[in-house]
């Protein structure tokens, strides 16, 4: 298939593009390039792409496209909360506009990168895709709004699919250090401390960036009738861990590091344990990477490529990087 991959120069997009190509797809990217220079290690080879803002996409960008994988977004809670109206403009309105253009152009499949944080404060029980959505941040709310609007757009010839990704981890050439495992390993390697800012009790489902890519590839290949207008949690139950348990894996991976739970960030309302049985049953998909293996992979990559404290705090932290570039436009 000819796949338009939005956000192809982001953390996940940079891992996904070569995996889509290896699965036999022709990939065309679309990105503003905000994080294109945020590279750790060798420069990645990006696919051909459009350097364009999602808010300015036209029907020309959708011609000759069989499927859209839509990853471009302001991609986390701190970014989303910085200027909520911009989050809704980009993450919600521009996403729905992209989907309309895609449907009008005859694109039959539209895979949307949603998030398990749509479940919000879900407590200790396992939540499946039918659980009530209780987003607690503008970022998560924007994802819910897109899902709702795309459900209303589904037709015989336009199949939206919602991939609710767990929190990602793992090495990408365009690293993000502001997601929990990547962050904790970075602190451990740079300072010998594994710093947990919450009280360590919130539940987080985690999934490796490569496993996310493979879930999208499976959703592209699946028969329409199986995936039409469905939501899928992307991850694996073994990686439903508390932040303190995640930190424990980091201490184990980074020799000599010590756990420090500061609690300075106060109570964190985002806590959810997730059920992944639907994606296993429908797509035969199982995430492969454990958090333990991911911590070792990150430790080795940070060490091999000489991660510095300055880059860890600025270049690889989405909010700090954009602030250093003059903010969002
Ligand atoms: N990383 C995670 O833990 C995680 C978890 C669940 C869902 N997701 C979703 O996956 C997607 C990708 O996340 P990521 O971690 O790669 O984030 P990222 O910030 O690394 O990448 C997002 C990409 O989108 C691009 N982008 C942002 N706004 C744009 C706009 N207006 N026009 C064009 N391009 C724009 C950015 O330049 C960037 O390359 C996002 O939709 C995110 O919400 C990520």
From TrEMBL:
It comes from Actinocrispum wychmicini. InterPro entries: Epimerase_deHydtase, Lipid_A_modif_metabolic_enz, NAD(P)-bd_dom_sf. It comes from the Bacteria. Residues 3-235 form the NAD-dependent epimerase/dehydratase domain. This is Nucleoside-diphosphate-sugar epimerase. PANTHER family: BIFUNCTIONAL POLYMYXIN RESISTANCE PROTEIN ARNA (PTHR43245), NAD(P)-BINDING DOMAIN-CONTAINING PROTEIN (PTHR43245:SF23). Pfam families: Epimerase.
């Amino acid at each position: 298939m000819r796949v338009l991959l939005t956000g192809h120069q982001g953390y996940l997009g940079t891992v996904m593009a070569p995996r889509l190509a290896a699965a036999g797809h022709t990939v065309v990217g679309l990105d503003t390039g905000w994080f294109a220079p945020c590279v750790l290690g060798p420069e990645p080879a990006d696919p051909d792409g459009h350097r364009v803002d999602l808010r300015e996409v036209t029907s020309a960008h959708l011609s000759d496209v069989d499927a859209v994988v839509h990853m471009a977004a302001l991609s986390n809670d701190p970014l989303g909360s910085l200027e909520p109206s911009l989050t809704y403009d980009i993450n919600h309105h521009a996403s729905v506009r992209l989907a309309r253009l895609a449907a009008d152009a005859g694109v039959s499949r539209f895979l949307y990168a949603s998030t398990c944080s749509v479940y919000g404060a879900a407590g200790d029980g396992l939540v499946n895709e039918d659980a009530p959505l209780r987003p607690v941040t503008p970022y998560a709310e924007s994802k819910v709004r897109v899902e709702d609007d795309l459900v209303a757009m589904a037709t015989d010839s336009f199949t939206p699919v919602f991939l609710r990704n767990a929190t990602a981890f793992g090495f990408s050439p365009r690293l993000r250090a502001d997601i929990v495992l990547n962050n904790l390993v970075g602190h451990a390697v740079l300072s010998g401390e594994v710093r947990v800012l919450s009280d360590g009790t919130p539940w987080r489902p985690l999934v490796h960036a490569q496993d996310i890519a493979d879930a999208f590839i499976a959703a592209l290949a699946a028969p329409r009738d199986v995936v039409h207008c469905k939501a899928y949690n992307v991850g694996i139950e073994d990686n439903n861990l508390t932040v303190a348990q995640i930190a424990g894996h980091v201490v184990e991976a980074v020799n000599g590091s010590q756990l420090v739970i500061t609690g300075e960030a106060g109570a964190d309302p985002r806590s959810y344990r997730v059920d992944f049985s639907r994606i296993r049953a429908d797509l035969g998909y199982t995430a492969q990477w454990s958090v333990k293996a991911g911590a070792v992979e990150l430790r080795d990559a940070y060490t091999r490529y000489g991660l510095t404290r300055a880059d860890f705090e600025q270049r690889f932290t989405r909010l700090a990087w954009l602030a250093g570039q003059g903010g969002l436009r």
